[in-house]
Amino acid sequence: MSRVQIAFQDNDESRYIVAAIEQDNTTAVVHYEPAMIRVENEGSLIINRDTVSEQIGMEWDVQSLHINLITLTGHIDEDDDYFKIMWNN
């Protein structure tokens, strides 16, 4: 397998998203860089709407992820309930 990654602007909303990613992807590695938070994982990464909503403390729309998104590597599967990045389908 190969690593997938996603990077966000370093701001309050992104920190909640990254906390949710860490909760749902226990093997993910988070890199805090100047003005950016990059998350890597082997094979796939999933961002669940319910987990982010729980972290933020209010309903969260998966589409709002794109506001803070800088870049990603992998194939995308996106739904109202999740945003998944995979290396192989």
TrEMBL record:
Gene3D superfamilies: Monooxygenase component MmoB/DmpM. The keyword Oxidoreductase applies. It comes from the Bacteria. Keywords: Monooxygenase, Oxidoreductase. The keyword Oxidoreductase applies. Coiled coil: none annotated. Pfam families: MmoB_DmpM. One of its GO terms (molecular function) is monooxygenase activity. Belongs to the TmoD/XamoD family. This is Monooxygenase component MmoB/DmpM.
